[in-house]
Amino acid sequence: MNLPLCIVDCAWNSRQPGKRECQQGHCTANPRKPHRRLKKIRRITLQLGLANLLLACQLSTFNDSVYPYVYRSELISTNTPQKLVIAHVNFGVPSKSYLQGYSLKLDQKVQSVLEQGGFEIADNGNFRSFWRAAVRKHGDVYNESMAQLNTEAFKKVVGQTLAQLAQSGEADAVVFTDLLENPVVFQGANNRLAKWHGVSRKPRIKGRASLPAEFDWSQTAPAVSLRVIVYSVKGELLFKSLGGLEVTRHVDTSKNNGRFVRRDKLFSSAGNVDEGVRLALHPLVPVRGYPEQ
Fold first, then answer.
1. At 257, which helix (H) or strand (E)?
2. Which member of 141, 243, 256, 290 has the lowest number of beta carbons within 10 Å of its beta carbon?
3. Is residue 160 domain-resident?
């Protein structure tokens, strides 16, 4: 509701008798240098408007493709983990080879957001040692030549590693951060967007030529999401969620009719990375503007 400046000005000076009074909705008495008051009101109004604009910018426009996260509130509330360790391995099948070089960058961002949420992050040196010892005992958890996960070996390696971590007392829970591919389609007539795991991304175009009108937008392109899984050192699943990051392909207009080609450099947009990581960690670290499930 917008109030007349006269009424606002009277309200401001109601505690200063003699300077200004309101009579029947009008301002009376000596209006000493009114232009200064008006400038002050306009300045404050502008500041409030800018504050609201900045607040709106912080509220990301998450869409309804958000992942239905798992949050074990009954376990977390009774024994809230305070000290976490970020695993150097995936929970299951490793990420694609071209994504593995980005794991450290994403883990650093995950650590930053977790610390902002009040968690302490322990060094994962001993976790690595415990994991290697378990692999020597139970065998490799993944067969690269066959691209197959050894489920039994994986369960035993994870169980032994968590048990040793519990005995060391170095952490309360382990955070697994996995980069996964998902096929997406750019939809829409004029403003094409790919939507997955809570985010929306526009197609990237490379090349000087214009995109051919016959370009096939129905074809899929691989997009990357961050999956976060948290297990307590007791072996209890506490949390699981995913957040979309980026589409790994751009449209190369130098090719015949244009086609999707893998980008040379990924995760160069700090905003995209921040959005995806915060989505993947909600509600472990709550994010404002998240759609209700």
1. none
2. 256
3. no
